[in-house]
Design goal:
Blueprint lengths: L3 H36 L6 H55 L5 H13 L1
Helix pairs in contact: 1-2, 2-3
Length: 119
Amino acid sequence: MNSVPHEHTKNLIELLPFLGLTIGLGLLGAGLSLFLRWKLKFALREEVQGILGVSVSFVAMLFSFFLGFTIVDLWQAYDHAERLVSDEANEVRTMYRLAKGVEGGGPLRDDLIAYARMW
């Protein structure tokens, strides 16, 4: 048997704080940019507001670029973990069926049932 699905799921869970931080910082940046545009609307000339708009757009584009990579990586990790779990379940099922045909395979079947219930 292979314990990789459990380790891979652990790695997937470790990515969640990074994803939360990325989304949180993006929302904070968007809120700050809206606040600055509202606060500085009447204080700055039109050229400065245009530069501020371009700067905010660049930061938003950069954020969406990194967020896209983060989501794709998280999705691939989830798909890989799902595939590993499915493969392991198929292996356990095959071993259980083979143990039925072997004389003295009862303890092996019991161990396989206990292993399957452990997860």
